[in-house]
Every structure is written in structure tokens, then in C-alpha cells.
Amino acid sequence: MKRVELIAVDGVPEVQPGDDLGEMIGSRAILQAGDVVVVAQKVVSKAEGRIVDLDTITVTARAVDIAARLIARPDPRMVQVALNESVRVLRSERVLITETRHGFVCANSGVDHSNVGGRNALTLLPLDPDASASRLRDRLREVTGVEVGVIVSDTFGRPWRLGIVNVALGVAGLPALVDLRGSLDDDGKPLHATVLAVADDAAAAAGIVMGKTGRSPAVIVRGAQLAGGGTGRELIRAPEEDLFR
Amino acid sequence: MKRVELIAVDGVPEVQPGDDLGEMIGSRAILQAGDVVVVAQKVVSKAEGRIVDLDTITVTARAVDIAARLIARPDPRMVQVALNESVRVLRSERVLITETRHGFVCANSGVDHSNVGGRNALTLLPLDPDASASRLRDRLREVTGVEVGVIVSDTFGRPWRLGIVNVALGVAGLPALVDLRGSLDDDGKPLHATVLAVADDAAAAAGIVMGKTGRSPAVIVRGAQLAGGGTGRELIRAPEEDLFR
Q1: Which of A8, B136, B219, B222 could be a cystine partner for A216, CB 3.0 to 4.6 Å?
Q2: Which is nearest to B113 in space by CA: B72, B65, B152, B71?
Q3: Mean pLDDT, residues A152-178 taken together
Q4: Contact A5 B4 (CB under 8 A)
Q5: Contact A222, A20 (CB under 8 A)
């Protein structure tokens, strides 16, 4: 009977810019080889100093115009930051859906309100989530002596379906996709078009434990047998192959 | 430390039309109150007889035309069945993306090749996945005496991201969405636009264990503390509120 465990890493204190996040997680978790550690983007961004003070933002007329058309009526400075982080705006009626510099398609370029040291600030996505995952993986190895996989995750909305789910932005030390094409199904027939987004499944699994209000910025996925290497970048559908962009 | 377990239900034999799937799963699983049992759509469809013999299908010119434009070069009869199951075609270049009668947006209306008793057949999605989940829940209660939640899941592709992930089509005995709006985050600030698709997270988690080739048509999600009620229908974004349809 195959069994996978999802274990919250508790007791991680509020993360500040410059904090050694790998040490903060590694010292609170008893890791085993083959574990995948899913870390919330928000604490990664905070540790990396990917924070913008709202008071430093100068808004353009475009940001003011878009802000007025959004249901959430956001601070136009927040819209401005989301625009700054984007290469393309897909929708700006009711909600702001952009393509980020990394190629992620998500609401508000992944920019989020955050209270950092009492300041009214915004967190931005990590500059390179795969590099963030890789650095965390290296640091966890140093701190614990254990080789694990790391996913930097965030919650994204989806077209066609309601609610947000946790997805993998950055990946290190595990495959992002598992290509079963050429394998046979239970009936012995070839599987077509069956590429599993295993890193997204693992991120979503961690999402059950992470919740949104509970202070569990890291979750261990144990027993998933996800050997190999991959990147979060591989999970991004190329714009020219995307039928819905 | 919050902990969730994902446990494969092993040893379920090949499912045939008319089979008592609830008994087949319940007799092989030691369930606990509060467990969520995620069951693959394919075995639900087989048990419910949602199967079409390819030899009984008459194709239209439209199905032949679409089949020729798809990368997978499917049997036009398969395209015909997908069209029959749909209320709308969103894309028919390279891949066939439809809106099903239920409102799901997915590839080929969720129609899948299947070897059922040696016949060259197709499985269709359950007519009413919420009703399927509800019936399975009732049957599991009868067989095991335990009150569980049930998700009927399938693997769907996504725009913008590569690979397929497991999602919840039918839900019974657990919430589909958890609305955290009005709650406070760790910093004591109100959470905006934070509706978690917990049933999709749970389905994706089960997907790690289910795999695609391993014969684990059911997975127990234990410890997720998903109390309440909901339906898979709630996870469908209304077409008039959908910006990408």
C-alpha cells in the first residue's frame, strides 16, 4: 500500500529580509532523504528582500485607470507594481491577469500585500524561483545533511474553475513533469498525452496542510518517490503553444 | 505538527459495468471518520456503465474535419463522442477543448479510451459526478459503518501551464471551496480574494499516489480536517464570469 505523508513544519518565526530561511526550516524539521520540502513563496520573497514599500511607488494614469475597473478596488500603487512586474496584461476588467517576467500567468503578477516589520508593503515573486528552490535545497543539505527536493509554491487562480490552488513556481531536486507517453496503462494500451505535472500535484498537496492562515510556511511531502531533476520553468506553457493567452 | 496521510487503496480488481464500486473499495480500506476517499473517474464511469462501444458510432463530417486538425490524430469516432458530450467547442486546433454538459472545460469532453472486457470502447464522464460521489459515500457508510467524504477525480490539463493535474469533478461530504474572505492572515490583516479550492487540492494530492499506470483507483486522504459539505458543481466558474472562455 503506497503511502505519502504531508507534514507541516511548525514554529517558523516571522521571516525578515536577509533571514536564513533554509536554516529556519531545516532546524525545525527532521528530514529524510527523498523528502520534498514545499516552501511558500511569501516567506521566500521576504527572506530574499523582494519587498516594495508602498510609499515609494509613483503611479501612472494607466494604473489608476485599471485599479478603478477591478472588483477589489485595489490601491493603484499595488496595480502599478503588478504592471512593473509584468511583460503583458491579459485581462484588466474585474481582475488583473498578467504574464510575469518569468512567464507565469496569474493575478496581479503574484504581488501581494504584506506587513513587513510594520511597514505597509508588497511582496513580489522571487526573481528566479528555480534559483530560490536550488539555494534552499543546498542550504537544507548543509543544515541537515539530507538530500531533499524543494518546491517554491504559490496559490494561483484558474480559468474555468473557481478557487485558488497551490502550484509550483520553483523546483529543485525533483521532476516537475513526468512523461508517461510510451508507457502502458493498466489495460496494456499506450498512454497518450499523459504528462503528469507532479510538482504541481505535490504543491497542491502541501496546500492542504499550509492553509492560508495557519503559520506553516513549509510542508514536507514524504514518500512520493519523485526522483530526478526538473525546474518550475518547464511547467510554463510556451506562449506560442498556448491556446488561451 | 499538522500531518495528513495519503493512502492508496490497493487490490481493487478491474471494474466492470454494474460492479458495486463502493463495496470493492470499502472492503479493501480501513476507513476512519473524517477520511476523504478520492476515486478515479474512470472506475466510476466503468461501474456506472458510462461506456460507448466505438463500433456503434456514426461520424459526422465535422468530427472527421476536427480529427484531422488534432495533433494526436484521434479516431474520428472518438471526436464524435467528445462532440456529443459537449455543449460548446472552445478550441479545435491541435487539441479539442470543449465545455461538457456539466460545465467542465477539458480536453475531449473527458472521453477516454478504455479496454472494457476486450472491447474497443470509450469511457464518458459520469452523468452527474456529484451524485456519483454521494452514492459512493452512502455505500461506503453501509459497507464500513464510517462517515467519509468522497471526491470523484479526473486529470485535466490547464491553459498557461503544462502537464495534467488531478481535479475534483464530484464532491460529497466535504467542502469544495473554503472561503477565507473576512479572516485575518498571520499579520492580522484581512485576506482578500482567498477562496481555497480544497477539493481540488485534495484531488491533486491523491494524484501523487494514484499515478496513472499504478492500479490505485482510490486514495484515502486522512487528517485533512475538511468538515462540511460541498459539491463539484461549485468549482465550476460560471461562463458569464469567466474571462477566458
Answers
A1: A8
A2: B72
A3: 96
A4: yes
A5: no
Predicted TM-score (pTM) of this structure: 0.94
Q: Which CATH number is A5-48+127-236's, of 1.10.10.10, 3.30.1330.100, 2.60.120.260, 3.40.50.2000? A: 3.30.1330.100
- pLDDT of A77 > 90? The answer is yes
- Mean pLDDT, all residues of chain A: 92
Q: What is the pLDDT of residue B245?
A: 75
Nearest-by-Cβ selection for A163 from B5, B177, B213: B177
| Cell representation of residue A189 | 494500451
Q: Which residues pair with B195 in a beta bridge?
A: B179
Instruction: Provide the pairing of β-strand A218-222 with A3-9.
Output: antiparallel
- CA distances A206 to A4, A80, B227, Å, are 11, 31, 18
Q: What is the mean pLDDT of residues A84-89?
A: 97
Q: Please report the pLDDT score of residue A114 as a whole number.
A: 75
The reported pLDDT for the residue numbered A208 is: 93
Give me the helices (H) in chain A, please: 21-26, 41-47, 61-69, 76-84, 129-144, 198-210
Segments in chain B below pLDDT 50 = none
Strands A86-91 and A119-123: unpaired
In this structure, the number of other CB atoms found within 10 A of the CB of residue B245 comes to 16
